[in-house]
Amino acid sequence: MSDVQHIRNLALVGQGGAGKTSLAEALLFKAKATARLGRVDDGSSILDFDPDEKERGSSIDSAVGRLTHLGTAVTLIDTPGLVDFQGEAIGVLRAVETALIVVGASSGIGVNTRAMWGYAEREGIGRALVISRMDAENVNAAELVEALRETFGARCVPFNLNVGEGPEFAGVTSCLEPPAGAGAEVKRWHEALVEAAVEADEAVMERYLEQGDIAPEELRKLIGKAIVAGTLVPIFFTSVTRDIGVSELLDAIAAGFPGPLDGPVRRFAPAADGPFDRVAVPDPEQPFLGQVFKIVTDDYVGKLAFFRVFSGTVHANTTFHLVRADRREKMTNILWVHGKETRQVEAATAGQILAMARVEAIAIGDVVTAGENVYLPPIPFPTPMVSLALEPKSRGDETKIGPTLQKLADEDPSLIVRRDSQTHETVLTGLSDLHLKVKLSRMVRRYKVEVTTRLPKIPYLETITAEGDAQYRHKKQTGGAGQFAEVWLRIRPKERGEGFEFKSAVVGGAISQSFLPSIEKGVKQVMEQGVLAGCPVRDVYVEVYDGKEHPVDSKDIAFQIAGREAFKQAMLKARPVLLEPIMDVEIVVPTRNMGDITSDLNSRRGRIMGMDSQAGVQIIRAQIPLAEMQTYSTELRSLTGGEGTYTARPSRYDIVPPNLAEEIRARHARARQSE
Fold first, then answer.
1. What CATH number belongs to 579-659?
2. Residues in the chain with pLDDT < 50?
3. CA atoms of 408 and 404, how far apart (whole Å)
4. What is the per-residue pLDDT for 543?
5. Strands, DSSP E only, in 221-374?
6. Structurally, what CATH architecture does the domain formed by 2-256 represent?
7. Per-domain residue ranges of the chain
8. How far is residue 96's CA from residue 651's CA, in Å, rounded to a whole number?
């Protein structure tokens, strides 16, 4: 297990614009893993290599970089900072031991800073804070450190202390091993650092309390354990442009950050629903167990699946077990990936992050093993809430659009493609308008498929609220065999969700039994097409109780037509109404925004069902019509400065208010006239 001791895996996460990619490039350059310092602004970054990223000047996808320092192999994964693409970062957190949370010195703690802290905490991995761009204007390091400690707890302790700040930022002083003549501030943070570190080991803590000191060598060994235990969150100060603090951070990562052996315990289960009470041992000699956390479609090597090996070893050109599909697959190629560079390796062993090529059946979150069906907890990707209906711009793209969208969704679990069976639309759902815009732009650039977009149709339904009765005679004479059928039927409403029921109460043979299915078929045609606004009809009881037939002219089509028209007339007599989908919504907003949010909910016909308070935020549970939610993501961000989030799930159908129902009916009528 000696090689495992010299592995470090970490993710750079945090708010967009904090300088994560620039810091990652500086670490790679400092370790001589790249020949020159890659820059985001001139497109020379090896991590932001996608054309969309170069055009936007910000990360959209996570990217892997490799370096070796102090005999330690470090895999660092740069992730997007915008919440619009946070699914990429969340997947990466499953594969690493440490989240390096980057905070801009002048921009401070952002929405995604808090979000990534929470996801890393739930994942059970260590956290470290890097204050970047210390040479920027308007920097107050002491205030920022206190803000970090107030937000994330007193476990956040400077690992080194800044010498100057803003344009005067000139260097850093170690708090781990203070130099001779260090000032009182450095000594203060040294004591805090020691206390946070020894808290991770009860025996060392007791000895420290008794003796009041701890040897530097022992302290260094405790750092990784304390980071994973969460008793210590070290803070580092850096400036990439001035090359300050980068070497110190790199030394700390290689020598002190947690590796697979002292990283979080990875638990698995023999069944998909747990309990997750078995431990994956990071030992190359144990049975192979890994998990896929990222997928990329590469122009040259096809589908690339990035996976983390939690235990064991898997060799190239051998088979492995794909648990979700319960099937064997061949790992033809195992690839070492660095930016967009790849090279083949012979094996993947415990602690490593590598990629496999050309396994088409594999998906993000898949568990891969030596042969046993075991399960890891699912990766908690955010639920997408913003939808667009898509249509191909050209007829030639009609057959391409489905497979192309599926490729995009394979790469991004926060992107969902579905075909709405009721509205017959292809619907793409993502985390935000920007998320969808970028993915559709990628579809044009990469696959040459263009689409037009609009808000999806609301899947309204129709039903009745009273009883109705109608009769209809269909008679058609065309010179040859004619058509004749007469149907008498009555209808009444059923309870919501009970569905459709068709019965016959015909006596005396007025209508032959053989024609009843034809009548039912005609009724069902109307139920699918609707009567009021072209929406499916639900929860209706239909009873045929009389009618007439002709010995020669009565036939299947005649009774279909008669049943259809009789049902339409009965519907109009039974006080028909439109039903709309209602969503159960949970909204999380800063307390200061409560007034604006409740006022906005009232304007959306929302009903507040309950509220809770939690650590400076309010959690609002409400029921809101889906028709009022289609642009809510954008408006919630506007109301809360980007800090509000929400989730929604279908609850029930309810009657549309009469004034709105009339608007919907009028729109349907206009659409029918224009066809």
1. 3.30.70.240
2. 1-2
3. 7
4. 97
5. 233-237, 266-268, 278-280, 289-298, 302-311, 313-315, 318-322, 327-331, 333-338, 341-345, 347-349, 353-357, 367-369
6. 3-Layer(aba) Sandwich (3.40)
7. 2-256, 266-369, 386-454, 462-574, 579-659
8. 37
